[in-house]
Amino acid sequence: MKKVFVDSGGWYAHLVSEDVDHMAALRLFQRAKAEGWFLVTSNAVVFETHALLLNRARDGRTVALGFLDDVEAGMCRVERVTKADEARAIGLIRAHSDKMYSLCDALSFVVIERLGIDSVIAFDAHFRQYGRYAVL
Question: Which residue, 40, 75, 78, 96, is most buried by CB atoms nearer than 10 A?
Fold first, then answer.
């Protein structure tokens, strides 16, 4: 079974029809369903996605709450970041001084590597810049 990590940009584009990447996200999530991909995200991404939806989506509170309901219903596995993940992510940010990785992105990179995932649904250029897995 193909494991795929989903970033907040992937969730946002999938759920917000006004997003420029909405159609691409819809196709990816339809493919994921058809091919039985095992979707994974982190609790940090859930926090970030909820905030994005709440503050940027039309009818944000409803959309954000629907996202949390879907997560609780098991639409993906939520991997909790560990203290070691946090330390590695901060180290990664320090080591890549030429990049503007957010802490959430760096945590995602660390979790993806810890879980041995090689594909992500993301529309954030930082995932391509990091370059360690396929950005779908």
Answer: 40
